[in-house]
Design goal:
The complex is a heterodimer of chains A (327) and B (511). With 327 residues, chain A is mainly alpha-helical. In chain A, 75% of the residues lie in helices and 0% in strands. Chain A has a single domain, classed as ABC transporter involved in vitamin B12 uptake, BtuC, CATH 1.10.3470. Chain B is of the alpha/beta class. In chain B, helix 13 packs parallel to helix 14. The chains are: A mainly alpha (327), B alpha/beta (511).
Chain lengths: 327, 511
C-alpha cells in the first residue's frame, strides 16, 4: 500500500508539473496539446546539459548540476512553447493541430538526442549522469525514516526537492490567478480576449508569456521523470508521452484549478499504478486497468457538463485565435 | 490646453479592404454636452467611434483631445486620454464579478483588494444614481445591469468622454429612462457623452446636438432643439421618406391560428406562458407587445413546435378549413403545413443563419429537403438569393459572400426575406427590425403588409410601441407570460398598452 502511494506520488509529480504549465496556458486561452512534446523537450535538454557538464568536469558540483538541468530544461520547453505561440497567436493557426504537431516534434527530437547520448556514452550504451541524478533524488534520511521502514516518513519525505516544489508552485499559481491583478488580467484574456483588449490589456503579450512560461513549467515534469524516476538515464519507452496526456486530462479533471490538480495528480498516479497491485491480472485485463485515469476524466467531464456550473467550465476563449479587427 | 472641445476629429478616413467605412469625417464634441450620432445601418457610426476607443486606427485624419493632437493606438491609449466606450456587445467576462470586470486591465498599485474596489464602485454608483452590486457575477445579471457595469467601468477609469453604442437597443422603456437620467447626471458633472441610437424620439429626448452620418460621410450637425423627427430622417436618408406606415384594412379576416389556454413551463419549473388565449386572423397583422422576456419567444417557439407545451390547445386552420392540432407535431411538419417563424435574436447571427456561408447557402438551409438525390441543387437557392438581394437592397458584394461580414441590418434582411419567401400561411416574426435604421425598417414593414394583403396571418412581435400601433391591426399584450389584454391598434393609445405591459392580470378576472 505504501509502495503504491509512493510510486503514485512520484508519477503524480510528473503529471502535476505538466498540468500546472497547461493550466497557465489554458487560462490564457491557449489549448496546448503539445504538453507531452514539451515534457520530452524539457527532459532531454536537462539531460544533455548536465551530461556535457559532468563529462567535461572531473568533480561536478551538485548544485551547479541542478541549476544547469533546470535552466536547460526550462529554456528548451519554453522555446517549444514559443514556437507554438508564434504559430497560434501570431499566425493564428489551429491550436489543436499545432499542439499535436509539437508533441510529435518534441518526442522525435528528444528520442533522437536521447539515442545519440546513449551512443556517445559508450559502454553499455546507456547514458548516465550520476551526480545530477543523485542531487535531484536527495532527501533528508532522518525525516524519511520516521515511523520506521517504509512508513509515514517514507511516504511523506523520501522524494527529491522537485516533488515539493511542484506543490509550492501549485499554491503560488493559485494565488497568482486569484489574488493578483496580473492573474485577473490573464484569466480575462482566456475568457474573453476582446474584452481584455478593450480594457487595455496586451492580449498578445499575455498569451505569449503564459504559453511560454506554462510550457517551461510543463517541461519540468519531463525533467523530474528523467532525473528522479529513471535516475538520470534515457529511455524511449513512451512513458513521458503517456504521462503528458494524463497531464492534459488532469487539467480538465482539476477544472482548471491548480489546487485541485495537486490531489488530482496523486489520484492519477494511484490509478496509473493500480494494475500492479490488483492480484490475478492477465496481460489482457491489465491493459484495461491502465485505462482508469482516462475513464475517470471522461466520467468527470460528463459530471461537470451536467452540472453546468459556470465556474467549472473551460475558459470561454479556449482554443480560439484572437484578431482585433475581425468582424 | 483649454480647448472648447473635448474631442475633435478631423478628416478621418478608414477603409476595410475595398470598403470605405468612413470618408473624411469631421466631428466635434463639446465639454458637458450629449451628442447624438445618427445614421443608417452601415453608415460608419460604430467604426468612427471605435477609432476614438482605440479598437481601430484611422487610415487618414487626426484626432484632438482637449485641443491636443493625439494618436490612439489601443484601448489603453483611449483610457489614458479619458475616453471610454460602452460597446453594443458588452465587453465583460461572464465568470468575473462586477468589481473584477471594472478593474480589469488597470495597472493600479498594490495587490487586488476586492473590498477597496467595491467601496470605490459604490461611491461612483451613488454619485450618478446607478444600481449595482460589485460582488455579483456577470452571468447572473440582466442586460441592463451588465450595461451599468460597463458604464461604471468606464467612469472608474476616470473617463471624461463616454461613448455609448446603441445603449437602448436592449433596454425596456423604464430602463431607458433610468439610463437617460444617469446620462444627464454625468453631463451635469461636466462629462461629454456621445450616444449612437436609431430611435429618433430618444435623440430628441436626451441629446443637445445631433451629428448625422450617411454612407460613411459626414452630412452635418444640428442643435436638437431645431430638429424634428422628419428633418433628422431626411438628413439620414438623404431623401424625404414618409414616416407613416401604410396600413390597409384587413381583407376577409378568417381565423388561421387559435391558441387556447396555452401554458408552458421551463426546465426550472417557472411558468413562461400562463393560460394564453388569442386568435390570429389571415389578412391581418397581429402585434404582440410586452416587456422583453414576457414570454414572446416561448410563445412563438411553442407554436413552431420548439418549446414543450404543458397544457392548452394550438389549433391551426389551413385554407381547407380542417383544424390541425399543432401540439406535439414535429417542427419540420409544422413548417411544411405553412407556418414560418423568423426570430431575430439580440445576436443576429445566433439563430437561423450560418455566418460563414453566403446568402445562397443560407437560403438552402430551409430548402435542402426539397431536392432529390444526394447532390445539392444550387439553382433555386441562387435565384432566391438574387431576388432578396435585389428587392430588399441587401448591401453585399455577392450572394456567395459570407453573411457574417455583412452589417447587422443586412443580415436581418436576409433572415426575414428567406422566411417570407417560403410562402407561409402564418408568418411569425420577432424583433424583425431590431437594430435596423428607419429606411430598412420600412422595407420590412411593407413586406409584412404585402403578406397580410395576400391573406397571410402575420404575427409581429415588436419592441417599439409606435410601430406596433401603426403597423398592426390588433395587439395582444403579454405581461409575465399572461395575456393582459387584446386591443384594437386603431383605437388604442401608447399609454393603454404601456399600462397593460406592466399590469398583471388579476386573479379570477377573465381575459
Amino acid at each position: 500500500m505504501i509502495t503504491l502511494l509512493h510510486s503514485a506520488i512520484v508519477f503524480g509529480t510528473v503529471i502535476l508539473f505538466g498540468a500546472l504549465g497547461e493550466i497557465i496556458s489554458e487560462k490564457a486561452g491557449n489549448l496546448n496539446l503539445g504538453v507531452p512534446g514539451v515534457m520530452y523537450l524539457g527532459a532531454i535538454a536537462g539531460l544533455v546539459g548536465v551530461f556535457f557538464y559532468e563529462l567535461g568536469t572531473p568533480n561536478p558540483i551538485p548544485i551547479v548540476c541542478i541549476l544547469i538541468a533546470l535552466v536547460c530544461s526550462f529554456a528548451a520547453s519554453a522555446l517549444g512553447g514559443l514556437v507554438y505561440s508564434f504559430l497560434t497567436i501570431t499566425l493564428r493557426c489551429n491550436q489543436n493541430v499545432t499542439g499535436l504537431t509539437l508533441t510529435i516534434f518534441g518526442s522525435g527530437v528528444a528520442n533522437f538526442f536521447g539515442g545519440s547520448l546513449n551512443k556517445l556514452a559508450g559502454g553499455v550504451g546507456q547514458v548516465s549522469v550520476p551526480v545530477t541524478s543523485g542531487a535531484f533524488r536527495k532527501y533528508i534520511p532522518a525525516l524519511a525514516s520516521i515511523g520506521g521502514e517504509k512508513s509515514i516518513g517514507y511516504l511523506l519525505f523520501s522524494y527529491g526537492f522537485m516533488a515539493y516544489a511542484a506543490i509550492i508552485l501549485a499554491i503560488l499559481i493559485h494565488f497568482y490567478l486569484k489574488k493578483t491583478r496580473s492573474g485577473l488580467n490573464l484569466r480575462a484574456v482566456g475568457e474573453n480576449p476582446a474584452t481584455a483588449d478593450a480594457a487595455g490589456i496586451n492580449v498578445t503579450k499575455y498569451k505569449y508569456l503564459a504559453t511560454c512560461i506554462g510550457a517551461g513549467i510543463s517541461g519540468f515534469g519531463g525533467l523530474y521523470y528523467t532525473m528522479d524516476y529513471i535516475g538520470g538515464t534515457w529511455a524511449n519507452d513512451g512513458t513521458i508521452e503517456a504521462l503528458g496526456w494524463l497531464a492534459v486530462a488532469l487539467v480538465i479533471f482539476a477544472t482548471w484549478r491548480s489546487l485541485n490538480a495537486i490531489w488530482g495528480a496523486y489520484l492519477f498516479g494511484v490509478c496509473y499504478w493500480m494494475y500492479l497491485y490488483i492480484p490475478g491480472l492477465q496481460r489482457r485485463s491489465l491493459e484495461l486497468f491502465k485505462m482508469i485515469p482516462y475513464v475517470v476524466t471522461l466520467l468527470l467531464l460528463v459530471f461537470v457538463s451536467m452540472r453546468r456550473r459556470k465556474e467549472d467550465q473551460p475558459p470561454a476563449g479556449l482554443g480560439l485565435p484572437y484578431f482585433r479587427e475581425e468582424r | 490646453m483649454d480647448s472648447k472641445y473635448a474631442i475633435e476629429m478631423r478628416g478621418i478616413t478608414k477603409r476595410f479592404g475595398h470598403v470605405v467605412a468612413n470618408n473624411n469625417v469631421h466631428l466635434e464634441l463639446q465639454k458637458g454636452e450629449i451628442l447624438s450620432l445618427l445614421g443608417e445601418n452601415g453608415s460608419g457610426k460604430t467604426t468612427l467611434m471605435n477609432m476614438l476607443a482605440g479598437i481601430y486606427y484611422p487610415d487618414e485624419g487626426q484626432i484632438f483631445v482637449d485641443g491636443e493632437p493625439v494618436s490612439i493606438q489601443s484601448p489603453k491609449d483611449a483610457f489614458d486620454h479619458g475616453i471610454g466606450m460602452i460597446h453594443q456587445h458588452f465587453k465583460l467576462v461572464d465568470v468575473f464579478t462586477a468589481a473584477e470586470n471594472i478593474v480589469l486591465g488597470l495597472d493600479e498599485e498594490g495587490k487586488l483588494d476586492r473590498k477597496a474596489i467595491a467601496a470605490k464602485v459604490r461611491v461612483i454608483a451613488e454619485r450618478y444614481g446607478f444600481d449595482i452590486d460589485p460582488d455579483q457575477k456577470i452571468y447572473e445579471m440582466s442586460v441592463s445591469q451588465k450595461q451599468t457595469v460597463e458604464i461604471v467601468k468606464v467612469l472608474y477609469r476616470g473617463a471624461n468622454v463616454l461613448i455609448l453604442d446603441e445603449p437602448t437597443a436592449v433596454l425596456t422603456p423604464q430602463e431607458t429612462d433610468k439610463l437617460f437620467a444617469v446620462m444627464r447626471n454625468m453631463k451635469a458633472d461636466g462629462k461629454a457623452l456621445i450616444i449612437i441610437t436609431h430611435k429618433l424620439h430618444e435623440v430628441l429626448d436626451v441629446s443637445d446636438r445631433v451629428v448625422v452620418l450617411r454612407k460613411g460621410e459626414y452630412i452635418g450637425d444640428v442643435p436638437t432643439k431645431e430638429a424634428t423627427q422628419q428633418s433628422l430622417t431626411d438628413m439620414m436618408v438623404g431623401r424625404a421618406t414618409a414616416l407613416n406606415i401604410n396600413r390597409p384594412d384587413p381583407v376577409d379576416p378568417h381565423p388561421v391560428l387559435e391558441v387556447k389556454n396555452l401554458t408552458c413551463v421551463d426546465k426550472d419549473g417557472v411558468k413562461r406562458l400562463d393560460d394564453v388565449t388569442f386568435t390570429a386572423m389571415g389578412g391581418e397583422i397581429l402585434g404582440i407587445a410586452g416587456i422583453a422576456g414576457s414570454g414572446q419567444k416561448e410563445l412563438l417557439e411553442a407554436i413552431s413546435g420548439l418549446y414543450p407545451v404543458v397544457s392548452g390547445e394550438i389549433k391551426y386552420i389551413p385554407d381547407d378549413g380542417t383544424a390541425l392540432d399543432l401540439r406535439g407535431m414535429d417542427p419540420m411538419a409544422i413548417r411544411k403545413a405553412g407556418i414560418a417563424m423568423s426570430f431575430v435574436p439580440e445576436d443576429r447571427l445566433g439563430m437561423g443563419l450560418v455566418g460563414s456561408m453566403g446568402m445562397s447557402g443560407n437560403m438552402m438551409l430551409r430548402s435542402w429537403k426539397k431536392g432529390t438525390g444526394p447532390f445539392l441543387k444550387r439553382k433555386d437557392p441562387n435565384q432566391l438569393a438574387m431576388e432578396i438581394w435585389k428587392n430588399l437592397e441587401v448591401v453585399t458584394p455577392g450572394i456567395q459572400y459570407p453573411v457574417r461580414r455583412l452589417s447587422g441590418g443586412n443580415v436581418q434582411k436576409v433572415l426575414v426575406g428567406r422566411e417570407i419567401a417560403a410562402g407561409p400561411k402564418l408568418l411569425m416574426t420577432a424583433y424583425a427590425v431590431r437594430g435596423l435604421d428607419i429606411n430598412t425598417s420600412y422595407t420590412i414593414y411593407n413586406l409584412l403588409t404585402d403578406q397580410k394583403m395576400k391573406g397571410v396571418a402575420v404575427v409581429y412581435v415588436g419592441e417599439d410601441l409606435d410601430v406596433l400601433l401603426e403597423l398592426c391591426d390588433r395587439i395582444v399584450v403579454l405581461c409575465g407570460g399572461q395575456v393582459s389584454g387584446v386591443v384594437d391598434a386603431r383605437k388604442t393609445t401608447r399609454e393603454e398598452i404601456g399600462l397593460l405591459m406592466t399590469q398583471f392580470r388579476k386573479e379570477g378576472a377573465t381575459a
